[in-house]
Amino acid sequence: MRTLSTLLLSLVMVMTSTASVPPDSLNAAAAKAYLAGDHATALVHYTALLEFGISSDLYYNIGNCHYKLGDIAQATLHYERALKLAPGDEDLRANLELARARSKDRVNELPGSSLLAQWNRLAGGRDPDHWARISLWSVTVLFVLLAITLFLRATKIRRWVRIMGALSALLAVGAFAMASARHAAITDNTGAIVMVPKVDVRSEPNGTSTVLFVIHKGTKVQVLEHSGAWVEIKLANGTVGWMQEEGLTRI
Amino acid sequence: MRTLWSFLLLIALTGTTVGQEIGFTASVDRNAIAAGEQLRLTIQLTNTRERFSAPDMGGLVVVAGPFESSNFSYVNGRMTSSVSRTWTLTAPQPGKYTIGPAQVKVGGGIIATDPITIEVSKGAARPSDPYANQGQKSDANLFATITLSKNKVYVGEQVVATYTLYSRYNNLELSKYELPKMTGFWAEEIDLGDNGWEDRPRTINGIPYNVAVLKKQVLFPQKSGKLRIEPLELTCTVNRSFFNRGSEVGVKSNTIDLQVIDLPQPAPIGFTGAVGELQLTGTIDRQQVKLNEAFQIDLRFAGKSNLKLLEAPAFDVPTDLERYDPKTVDKISVTGTGMSGTREFQYLLIPRNEGLFEVPALELSYFDPATGRYEVLRAGPFPLEVLPGEGGRTARPERPAQTDVQVLGEDIRFIHTGDLDLRPAGEHLFGSAWYWAGLGTPALAFVALLGWRRRTEAQRGDAVLMRRKQADRVAKRTLQDAAKAMEAGASGPFHDAVSKALRGYVGDALGLGLAELTLDRMRAELGRGPEGSAIAEEVTRILGVCDMARFAPSQDRPDPALYQAALEVIGRMERTLRV
């Protein structure tokens, strides 16, 4: 009982201590430690920053710290989390590529999905709310233009205003579709990274069925279905099998 | 016959003298010696021919002897005979020694000499080999030693081990020998050439020995700490001769410990691992070289060190020079003083581009045990001018050959140090209340704007405009009534409706009261251009036909052409007024 209370107390103290440090100075301290080669300290600071919120840059930096400390699986996990928020970040893609190259399993992506990835990169940008913001702007512009036509008598200008209004209406519809697609991608949590050294993937959700293949730490999988403590997973190359969920961490 | 007599006489005489004067003495030439010096012991027996035993030497070592001599004299009718034996003795250690009595049996009794005391002082003699001393103590006739040139060395410093056999036997054959195993050393044999017994005997504590150096090795300790060299064991057959099969004697040398000290840490960058004395000379064979022609840089290490363990130094050259693996040329000799000589690394280089180059200076270091410090070796820099190759400059294109940018390393990209733009997890703009509000607000604002505009127009009393705006809609609604009446075949309501629609529309569109709908007035309103008066006339005509039908019901059936004409004229007016 006393240990529990001391634990709680220390937890509260840690929380208050991190909360008392402003995020900007934490960020600066982390960057300084990273530059000096003290990646462990940088990681502690960046992880403390997660208290204040998330961003692709923060996940990216945490991934870098893990990479430098040699934990490729954790690095991959955080890069993937950052990628969800900012599929268009060049640095992120380059580092994720290196982390994937250093993990044990090489999974060839299905041919179709690389094109999709290209599209996602274009559609995603560096900002998760990119398209939502564009749709808001274009709707605003559309109605402003409509309002202008109400008051315009000159026919020539009115025609131009109508064309622009049609364009912004198109843009608004497109951007809305994009934003909803991005929203779906960001809130999707079927992606996961293997966090244990080695996992047997079986044909059925029990420990006695045939082992179909073996995957290792750092490999990305997609969770399709649940059955008790077991999940059905799919690799990027399309292979499907069952494994226990405890070996996975969701992106 | 006389000779026989005299012989008999002699015997008789001799017999008489025996009983008279028998002497037995022991003497030394000196009573005090320094350790390692020699003295001579002589024991003389006079007037008897009995054999006497050798005395107990009391710890003194017999170097030589005994040598026996006999003396016979006949003086004044008195005949004297004496026998003497002489030993050469020495004492390895200082102290007091007593030579015991020698005894001889004469007649029924025993005669003994007096014991002799010898004082052996500590000699001013040269410091002799402690291992030889030790070996001599265990077996004074045959022993072996291992000696090292140094007892305390640094890791990698060379030390010479000598395996020596000392023997006092005249006849010795080595039948078996086993060299100690070397653990922790890198050993290099020294070629002793034609080895055998040394010409001159070596004297250890006054005792001469035949000495053979069995083997010499240069040892390079590879680790620090106390390294032990196990004893050398050998078996010799001694005193073998034609008559004698000889006997086997086992010999075991001393063990020896070598104290090995670690090199001071940290070793400087460019430490070659060499320990000893070293010099480096770097030479380049040309200052000017033509393009694609080979030239050579030699790095020559000279000195006393573990040269055979020296590796070719990492030698950076500008990328436009192509470097080949170096050739190693050794002139290394291993002698009694250790390993020395030169090792030369010959680097062949070929310039692949013109211009002035400089092969940067090479800085290496070695450890000098004499000073206990790392010493720096320097070679270069080597300036070099590369001239255009065969065919001169014109044969070559001006543009230098391009090469791909070399990727030297791979690493992740740097962290993003700017503002992290943190936002609460799980909150997205899309789908949030703010988003829907953002989408809805412009639409609502627009609707509000429309409403506001309509209200202000009504308030401004712009009834004319309102009427005109609605004229089209009102006319079309009334015309629908006309169409119904036309289908029902009711002539009166049909003409009524057409007339009402047209009058209403024209009145609303032109802002005229029903009473004002005269041809002239309509012409005045629509007037400008032929189109205006044509419309006015058409309107007047249709209204006229309607009025005729209403007041003089001659035609029974409603005329679809009239309906069409009314629709058409409303359309024409609409277009005219809109413009």
Q: Mind sketching the topology for me?
A:
The complex is a heterodimer of chains A (251) and B (579).
Chain A: H1 2-20, H2 23-35, H3 39-49, H4 56-68, H5 72-85, H6 90-102, H7 111-124, H8 130-151, H9 155-187, E1 191-194, E2 198-202, E3 211-216, E4 220-227, E5 230-234, E6 240-244, E7 248-250
Antiparallel strand pairs in A: 1-4, 1-7, 2-3, 4-5, 5-6
Helix pairs in contact in A: 2-3, 3-4, 4-5, 5-6, 8-9
Chain B: H1 2-18, E1 23-28, E2 32-34, E3 38-46, E4 61-75, E5 78-90, E6 95-99, E7 103-106, E8 109-112, E9 116-121, H2 130-138, E10 142-148, E11 152-154, E12 159-167, E13 172-178, E14 185-189, E15 202-204, E16 207-221, E17 225-229, E18 233-238, E19 247-252, E20 256-261, E21 271-284, E22 288-290, E23 295-305, E24 321-323, E25 327-335, E26 338-351, E27 355-359, E28 362-368, E29 373-379, E30 382-387, H3 433-459, H4 463-488, H5 491-510, H6 519-526, H7 530-551, H8 560-578
Parallel strand pairs in B: 2-9, 11-20, 21-28, 22-30
Antiparallel strand pairs in B: 1-3, 3-5, 4-5, 6-9, 7-8, 10-12, 12-16, 13-18, 14-16, 15-16, 17-20, 18-19, 21-23, 23-26, 24-26, 25-26, 27-30, 28-29
The rounded Rg of chain B comes to 69 Å
Biggest sheet strand line-up of chain A: 6-5-4-1-7
* SSE ordering of chain A: HHHHHHHHHEEEEEEE
> Looking at the structure, what is the overall shape of chain A?
globular
Q: Helix/strand/pairing class of chain A, anyone?
A: alpha+beta
Total beta strands of chain B: 30
Helical residue percent band of chain B: 25-40%
Global structural class of chain B: alpha+beta
- Could you give the distance between the termini of chain A? 35 Å
Average pLDDT rating of chain A = 83
